[in-house]
Each structure stands twice: as structure tokens, then as C-alpha cells.
């Protein structure tokens, strides 16, 4: 399939999962808008490298996903949005009774409210064109829970619910909305944690990955950013025209337990 002629906005996409999704959408022919809250020369250079690699248009637009106005402004500044991938997210870990209020508010704003604002801004254009795809990057933690991650889990569960409501409000209009729920994904951030885990547990790399980091992922294998990107591309294809309002788990069997 080709996404030539479509424009995709991917929030939180100058590294990790978001960048992998942007790369795969560009590989499929979509023009892409990547985003984060910084505005550095290397951010714009990254967009230029995507354009050069895939023969598409690519831009970097800085916008703080904790700010609802900036979220809506991102869509407006992009000029067009056929595909919206809400990927921006942050994490903080603490017991509920010790969880800092500012961290709770920031996680809910970036992981959940940003998707509301970008979706609200993108839907009128999608309706006018009679075609659109909204893909929310939730998490296995959007379907299950772990201790000490109350804000993240509340936000990701909320993102799954927002996806269902968006799907119902756009059904029959050529627009779909789904949530992709990754388990542990091998990103540069995760890769950087492995040496510390090896030292803390006195294990070699293979053992600490299998027995510690992937203890809840039955496949004992990380998902990759390319696999997440490929899943998003599939959801934008005609094969997925009737897939809406649901979750797709890319978690090595985690949520099957």
C-alpha cells in the first residue's frame, strides 16, 4: 500500500517509538510532521533526514504537549492532518499516597489530555476530506495495571476509552480510531537501562533482559519500534477500514495472562 499524498502528525516523535512510527509512515509514502517540546537544530535535521531517506516531505514542529493550546496549535501549524498518531508520554513511579501532585497533573496532561486536544483539532479536516486515521499509542498498562504507576495507568486506560469514543463519533465517516498497546519496546531509553540492571542484579545482559525486564512479557522478547510503526501503517491501510474503536496489543502475550 502507499500513503502517498497523506500527511501524518506524530506527537513525541524525535526519538524512540514515535520516531520509529514516523520512519515507517514515511517509508509508506506519507509526508510527516514530527514533534517534541525542544526546538534544536538537530530536531530539524532529523526531519530533513527522514525526508531525504524516503523521498517525502518532513517537518519538525516544536509544541509542548502539556499545553492544550499548543497541542491544537501543532495541528493548525501542520496545515493538514490525515493521520494523527498520539504518542507523547512521560512516566513517574511512586506509591499513590506519595505521588507528587505536579507529576500526576503532568502525566495526565501529556499522556491523555494532549490526545483530546490534537484529536479535536484534527477531526474537522478529516471529516471534510472524508478520510482520516487516529492512532493512540496506549500501553499494555492501558489494559492491565502495575503498582506505583497510578498516573500512567490512569492516563493510558483513559486513552483507550478516548479511542473508543472517538471511533463511535466518527463511525461511517471514513475515519477510524484505534489504540495500539505496546509492551516493553527496545528504545534507546530502555537500552540505556540494561547496564544498570545488569549491575544491580549481577546478571549478564541476556539474563537480565529475560528474567527482570521482560518478566511479564511471555515472549521474553522486546517489541521493536519498526514493529510498532508497521502496526500503525497497517491501521492506515484499506485492510483496516473496518477496524475501529479497538485495541491492538503488541506485547508478546503480556495481556493474554
TrEMBL record:
Q: Which Gene3D superfamilies does the entry link to?
A: NAD(P)-binding Rossmann-like Domain
Give the family per the record.
Belongs to the short-chain dehydrogenases/reductases (SDR) family.
Name of the featured protein: 3-hydroxybutyrate dehydrogenase
Domain of life per record: Bacteria
Species the sequence originates in? Rhodobacter ferrooxidans
Sample GO molecular function, one term: 3-hydroxybutyrate dehydrogenase activity
Amino acid at each position: 500500500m502507499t500513503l502517498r499524498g497523506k500527511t501524518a502528525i506524530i506527537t513525541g516523535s524525535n526519538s524512540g517509538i514515535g520516531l520509529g512510527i514516523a520512519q515507517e509512515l514515511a517509508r509508506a509514502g506519507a509526508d510527516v510532521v514530527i514533534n517534541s517540546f525542544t526546538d534544536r537544530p538537530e530536531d530539524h535535521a532529523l526531519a530533513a533526514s527522514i525526508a531525504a531517506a524516503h523521498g517525502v516531505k518532513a517537518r519538525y514542529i516544536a509544541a509542548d504537549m502539556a499545553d492544550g493550546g499548543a497541542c491544537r496549535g501543532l495541528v493548525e501549524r501542520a496545515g493538514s492532518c490525515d493521520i494523527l498518531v498520539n504518542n507523547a508520554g512521560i512516566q513517574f513511579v511512586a506509591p499513590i499516597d506519595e505521588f507528587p501532585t505536579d507529576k500526576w497533573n503532568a502525566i495526565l496532561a501529556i499522556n491523555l489530555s494532549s490526545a483530546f486536544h490534537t484529536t479535536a483539532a484534527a477531526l474537522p479536516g478529516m471529516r471534510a476530506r472524508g478520510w482520516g486515521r487516529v492512532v493512540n499509542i496506549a500501553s499494555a498498562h492501558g489494559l492491565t495495571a502495575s503498582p506505583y504507576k497510578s498516573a500512567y495507568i490512569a492516563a493510558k486506560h483513559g486513552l483507550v476509552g478516548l479511542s473508543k469514543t472517538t471511533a463511535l463519533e466518527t463511525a461511517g465517516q471514513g475515519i477510524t480510531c484505534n489504540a495500539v498497546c505496546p509492551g516493553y519496546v527496545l528504545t534507546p531509553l530502555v537500552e540505556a537501562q540494561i547496564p544498570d540492571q545488569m549491575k544491580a542484579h549481577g546478571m549478564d545482559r541476556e539474563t537480565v533482559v529475560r528474567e527482570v525486564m521482560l518478566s511479564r512479557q511471555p515472549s521474553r522478547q522486546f517489541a521493536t519500534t519498526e514493529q510498532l510503526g508497521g502496526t500503525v501503517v497497517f491501521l492506515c491501510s484499506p485492510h483496516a477500514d473496518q477496524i475501529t474503536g479497538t485495541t491492538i496489543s503488541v506485547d508478546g502475550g503480556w495481556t493474554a495472562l
